[in-house]
Design brief:
By secondary structure, the protein is an alpha/beta fold. It is about 50% helix and about 20% strand. The protein is built from 5 helices and 5 strands; from the N terminus they run βββαβαβααα. The chain has a 5-stranded mixed sheet with strand order 3-2-1-4-5, with helices on both faces. The longest helix has about 30 residues.
């Protein structure tokens, strides 16, 4: 399964692509950080993010997209930008006809490190180890996006298969 993970952000949006199957180590395909200029107007920033994510989805042809679920922060301005970037990421996956799953930061941390309370350094170290990289992906936004993709391979792939099977049963099919 190939997954494109997105750590949404309006100024820096991490994108990571991995391949793998549940219970096995994943393989790094690529990672990026999409930057937008804070001096630009919001519509231009969102358009740049949309075009960039759409191009990356087309380039890497993932089977699904995993996006970090926006959670409440103290800084409302920051959370608004993150929420807008998240919506663009979800849209990029949906526009390509892909299943999109969102994960909370603690779900991703638990999947990748075994602890929902892991800090950024622990997350980056585990992503580096799990993907067998010579050096940590930088910046942290890229490592976070890769962690989301790994989380989805290990958790979401199974979740998606169970949901699809339940849907087939509801529709009267057995396959």
């Amino acid at each position: 399964m190939r997954v494109l993970g997105v750590d949404p952000g309006l100024t820096r949006c991490g994108v990571g692509v991995v391949e793998g199957v549940p219970g096995r180590p994943c393989t790094l395909i690529a990672y990026y950080v999409v930057y937008t200029d804070p001096a630009d107007e919001l519509p231009l920033r969102l358009l740049h993010l949309d075009r960039s994510l759409t191009e990356l989805v087309a380039k890497h042809e993932p089977e699904s997209v995993a996006v970090e679920r926006v959670f409440s922060q103290h800084n409302v301005r920051t959370v608004m930008g993150t929420a807008q970037a998240s919506g663009i990421a979800v849209l990029a996956g949906a526009r390509a006809g892909l299943p999109v799953q969102t994960y909370t930061p603690s779900e991703v941390k638990a999947a990748v490190t075994g602890s929902g309370q892991a800090d950024k350094a622990q997350m980056t170290a585990m992503v580096t180890r799990l993907l067998r990289l010579a050096e940590p992906p930088k910046p942290a936004d890229a490592a976070d996006a890769l962690a989301l993709a790994i989380c989805h391979v290990w958790r979401g792939g199974t979740r998606s298969k169970l949901a699809a099977a339940a849907d087939r049963v509801r529709r009267g099919g057995t396959r």
